[in-house]
Amino acid sequence: MKAFMTNGTIDFLLKLDEKHKDIPFHFMTSNSNGLAYYEGSKKSVFSAGREYDILIEKGDILDDGYVVMNNIPVIEDGQASFEARFKKRGNDVDMMPGFQAFRFLKPRKGNTYVVFTQWQSEQDFENWKNSEQFKQSHKGQATKPPAYYADKPFITTYHMFDKE
């Protein structure tokens, strides 16, 4: 299964919904722009977008909620160990109140992986960040970034956009 994303103004992105009625798009907004996301097995319908392999999938992405995407650039030689680290992780995040969905996305082009989580609310995400489970799953990362990071990771956040 693959995931597809593209950015643009929400007005522009909503036109995709009219053009591709058979695709279950998820629309999101941030302070700076909009994002259209969908999952499938065929070729992307985006003329300019990003394509990922879904390596881990938990929960269903819902039309309401708060999305946090941790974008992590990984050097080519470090991809196998980076992926293995995620596959060994427990299910701590999906046991948290407010958790809705998790995706571990490997880029089909480029080197930036995406750790996608969806929460009922921004407060639910903050509760996760301040939890003991979060500290355990991120143990040892605060001191020194792993050698396989190609660049500094960055976070993007979105609120699901209600088309109605």
Automatic annotation (TrEMBL):
This protein's name: Heme-degrading monooxygenase HmoB
Signal sequence range: none
GO molecular function, one term: monooxygenase activity
All residue ranges annotated as the ABM domain in the record: 66-158
Keyword set, alphabetical order: Monooxygenase, Oxidoreductase
Protein's organism: Oceanobacillus picturae
Oxidoreductase among keywords: yes
Gene: hmoB_2
Pfam families named among the record's database cross-references: ABM (PF03992)
